[in-house]
Amino acid sequence: MVVQWRGVGVVWLGVILLAAARPAGAQDQSAVASVTAVRSVAGAMERGSEQGVRASRVDEAPRIDGVLDEEVWGRAERATGFVQQRPNSGEPSTEETDVRVLLDDRAVYVGARLRDRTPEDIVMRLARRDESVVADWFYVYLDSYHDRRTAFGFGVSAAGAQRDLRISDDDRRDVGWDAVWESSVSRDAEGWSVELRIPLSQLRFNDSGDARWGVNFQRDIARRNETSFWAPIEQGTDQFVSRFSELDGVGELRPSRRIEVLPHTVARLTRAPGDAANPFYSANATHRSVGANVLVGLGSSLTLSAAINPDFGQVEADPATVNLTAFETFQQERRPFFVEGSDIFTLSFPFWPPFFYSRRIGRSPQGFGSPDAAFQDRPSATTILGAVKLSGKTDDGWSIGALNALTGSEWSRWIDERGVLGQSLVEPRTVYSVGRVAREMRDGASGVGVMVTS
C-alpha cells in the first residue's frame, strides 16, 4: 500500500534552506532575485486568472472545413493576447492569434485564426497521428472537471495532423489516449485557420451545474522555435493545468449517456517458413477467438468498462528496443481498455518507476519450458480472459479507480531428443487487482491518495 501527499510548501522550504546556505555577501542579491522571480510568477498567474472566454451556444453546428465563414463564429467571443513561453518568456507572441469556442448539446467546437505575416514560411509537415514533428501547431486544452489537475488536449498541425493526450497531476502527459474527434485546416494569404469538433462523449465532466471549465490554447511557430499560450505558462515551470484560465457558459451541459458494446471476432492465418522436423510446425497456423468490450457511464462521474477475451490486434506495435541492463523495459500503454481512466491509477515519485504498470497484465510468459527440449511451442503472450474497471471523479473532488483482471494459465509444449512429448507451465493463472482513492484539496494545489495493489 502506498500513501501519497503533495503540496506547495516544500518548494518554499527549499528556497529558505538554499538562501540560508549562501555566503552572507550573496544573500542580499539572492533575496532580490528570489523576490523578483516570485513577483514575475505571481504577475503571470494574475494575468492568466484575469482572462476568460465564454463559449457561445448554437442551435446549428458549424461545418468543420477549416474556414471560419459561418455567422456563428463572428458572434462568438474571442480569446486573444497570446504570451510566449519560449524563446522570450513573458513577451507577446510575434503573430496574432484569436480563438473562439462554440457548443451545443453534443459537442464543443473550437475555431482559431492564426495570422502570419509571411504565410509562405508556415511549416506544414505530414505526420502520423500522435507523432511529434517540427511544424506549426495549434492546441486546445480542456480541464473539464475544473479540478486544476487533469485535462484533455487536442492538437492540429498546419498540415492537418492530429495529436490528442490526457494530462494528470498537473503536468503528466499521456499521448497513448486516443479520442474520436474531427478537425480541418485551411491556409490563405493571411495565415492559416483550424476548426475542431470535440464530442462531449469523449470528455469526462460533472453535471454539478458549475458554469466553468479550465481552458488554455497553445500555438507553435516552428521557424522561430516559438511556443505561446493564451493563459501564460512560464518557461521551466512544472505547473500546467493549474495555470489555465476559465471557459464560461458550460454549466448547462449534461454528460451524454455512454453505452458502448464492441463485439469482435478474430480469425488469423500465419504462413511462415519453419523446420519440417519440428512436430509443432504447421505451414498454415490458424487462430480464432470471440470477445467483446463494454463501456457504460454510471451517472455523470463514473465509467464502468469490461473486456471479455479482449483482442488488441489493432493496437500499433511497440518499437524495437535492445535492453542490455538488468532493469525491465517499460513500454507505453496503448490498449484502449487500460488507457481509459489511466490517469487515476498513475502514482509515482521522481526517479521511481510507476507503482502500477498495466503492461504486466497480458505480458510474455516468464517461464522457460524444458531446458532439454529439442523443439518447443511456447506462447508469446498471456491470454487475458476478462477484466473489469471502474474509474471516475466525483463532484466533491474524489478520484476513484478499481481494476480487476484475470489471465489464463499458459503452457509450453515440448519434445526432447528421445521423442518424449511433454508440457510445462510457463505462466500461472493470475488475478491482478488495483484500487486507488485520491482527494484533491485547496483547488488542486494539494492532495492525498492511497493505492493498494495485489
Explain this structure to me?
The chain has 454 residues and is mostly beta strands. It has helices at 9-21, 24-50, 71-75, 336-339, and strands spanning 2-6, 52-54, 56-57, 78-79, 83-86, 97-103, 107-115, 137-143, 151-157, 162-168, 172-174, 182-188, 191-199, 212-221, 226-229, 245-248, 259-270, 285-298, 302-308, 373-377, 384-393, 398-407, 410-416, 421-427, 430-441, 446-453. Mean pLDDT is 83; it is low at 2-49.
What's the SSE blueprint?
Blueprint: E1 2-6, H1 9-21, H2 24-50, E2 52-54, E3 56-57, H3 71-75, E4 78-79, E5 83-86, E6 97-103, E7 107-115, E8 137-143, E9 151-157, E10 162-168, E11 172-174, E12 182-188, E13 191-199, E14 212-221, E15 226-229, E16 245-248, E17 259-270, E18 285-298, E19 302-308, H4 336-339, E20 373-377, E21 384-393, E22 398-407, E23 410-416, E24 421-427, E25 430-441, E26 446-453
Parallel strand pairs: 2-16, 3-6
Antiparallel strand pairs: 1-26, 4-6, 5-15, 6-7, 7-13, 8-9, 8-14, 9-10, 10-11, 12-13, 14-15, 14-16, 17-18, 18-19, 19-21, 20-23, 21-22, 22-25, 23-24, 25-26
